[in-house]
Amino acid sequence: MGINTMGEVSGSARGLLVGVVAAVIALGAGAGGGEASEVVVYSARSHYGQEPAIEAFTRKTGVQVKIFGGNSSELFERLRAEGDKTPADVLITVDAGNLWNAARAGLLTRVDSPELLAAIPAYLRDPEHRWFALTMRARTIMYNTKKVRPEELSTYEALGDPRWKGRLCLRTSGHIYNQSLLATLIKRHGEARVEAMVRGWVANTPTLINGDTKILEAVAAGQCDVGLANTYYLGRILAKDPTFPVAPFWANQQTTGTHVNISGAGVTAHAKNRANAVKLIEFLASPEAQQMFADANFEYPANPQAAVNPIIARWGKFTQDDTNVAAAGELQAAATRLADRAGYR
Questions:
Q1: pTM, whole model, 2 decimals?
Q2: Are 132 and 120 in contact (CB under 8 A)?
Q3: Phi, psi (5° rounding) for residue 247?
Q4: Which terminus, N or C, of the chain has the lesser number of Cβ atoms within 10 Å?
């Protein structure tokens, strides 16, 4: 039987029991809170724990996702302050400039995943594989459909034409969305050309408004006739009011393409659940999850295999500027200095 009358365990039974105990311990770790059971996310996306794609990941894998929300700068500072004590395994944030800054500060680590390299185009991910796009948004020209004809529009540069004097709404230059737009254009065209463009905008005495939704509302109300905004803000409005009199015009289609930016994710440098962190990002880049992102927030999927929401599909396809979005961080400081020189506040 393997146990003698003194209650001692024989050698063969001892080996069997050790194996059983080890298996039980392994199973307990998988069910309890270790690598196999959870992943901790710091997310600057406004939905935080309400993301359908993240909920689908848990249903599919059984891995629980703990999400802590905050804006990009708050999460950046929190990660930096926590250092190797951070509980965060994944950082999800908006704007490539924020992701670039996090990677440069050593807060993110390289991920070599064939699945991610196949799913996300090269210009929508870090050249050193420390972050990957999850969603994409275009920052393009928005116009009042009752006051402006599409044939009057063409490029970002043409918004400096005198015809738009007193008719242009812009977000302030200090917001990262506009910093990233200018930084990417600097990467593409050089500072001299971009500065000339911005000086043209400034000469048209634009109305400066702090918020993309407010810009769209101002365009609709006739406070201005054209503006720059991210596409998903318009998608949100049209989902509630299909008669809203604003439409996007795809800028620079005959030249370099429309500027795009991203929300994205990376594995933290001190991730305790690294395998699950990689697994989560891989799932979020899959067509299944990408479709959920597109439907939930009217963003464009980063994975070209996923479809867009019908509301934004009506706007038609457009040529994107395929400058690597890392330029948004790389040239952020140069963009800020350029805006100051040009008088764009």
A1: 0.87
A2: yes
A3: -140, 155
A4: N
